[in-house]
Hints:
Blueprint: E1 3-9, H1 13-29, E2 35-39, E3 49-52, H2 62-67, E4 74-78, E5 82-84, E6 98-103, E7 126-135, H3 136-153, H4 160-170, E8 175-177, E9 183-184, H5 187-197, E10 204-205, E11 208-209, H6 210-215, E12 218-220, H7 225-232, H8 235-238, H9 255-258, H10 264-274
Parallel strand pairs: 1-2, 1-4, 2-3, 6-8, 9-12
Antiparallel strand pairs: 4-7, 5-12, 6-7, 10-11
Amino acid sequence: MNSGLLWFVDECPMQRRRLSVSFASARQWMPDADVAIVYQGDPPDLKAKLIPYHGDGKKFLAKFHAWELSPYERTLFLDNDTVVLRDLTSFFRNDEKVVALPYPNMLSRDLLPPDRMELRLKTWRNINSGVISFPSSFVAKCAAYIQEYADVINTLPGKDQYFISYVLNQSPELFVSSLVIQVTSTPMAVRYLEYLKQASSPFKFGDVSIPLMLDAYVFHYTHNKELYEKLILDEPFMNVLSGDFLSYDSITFGEEANAFSNSFLHRIVRRLFRR
């Protein structure tokens, strides 16, 4: 099963900057991985398979339609507002499962029409679709749902995320929950993950507990983006990606962090406490 990393970006300059950081962080950990970018507008100046997107990137399910253009049998999709913290190769599964982070339930079953018995959910579990590993067969399954139930699907809030959650809950046997594939910065999601992992810490990077970040494969700044963009996207700090280490050693996080002492994450943490 051929596999690779995939991003989707529109013409927005900030989205392009976020993509450059996400892409560079992935390359730092996975220099030999196959990578592809579905894009609107001018092609990004990045060494990847570049796939033009001719639809409206702002419309409902635009991200899913970008997934349909993936050249891989197994795709690991990354939102642009992500930073890869570890090698993601283990998520290139050779099966039909979908791997994602479980998320707090924010969508009620009541949003589905009560007179449409065939739409009743087998289970209910919301997921975050900003970092997700899926096979091409899952994309085909989603497309079939869109074809048959477009009248309902187009009324769902939350864009692609609730739709993907809906399909997975109709086929729960396909879902593999991962508490480490990513950590997001949305406070209620952080609290939910702390509850699931039975871990909390007074030491935080913005909204996110440091132990959760040290355990995660991807950091996804879903909330308080201005803070994280200032910390991650400013020009001096971009040099971190090319190896400009910030020497600040008065903060230590114990043996667990030692393995990450030269990682992108650890440099972010050091910069935060340095300010």
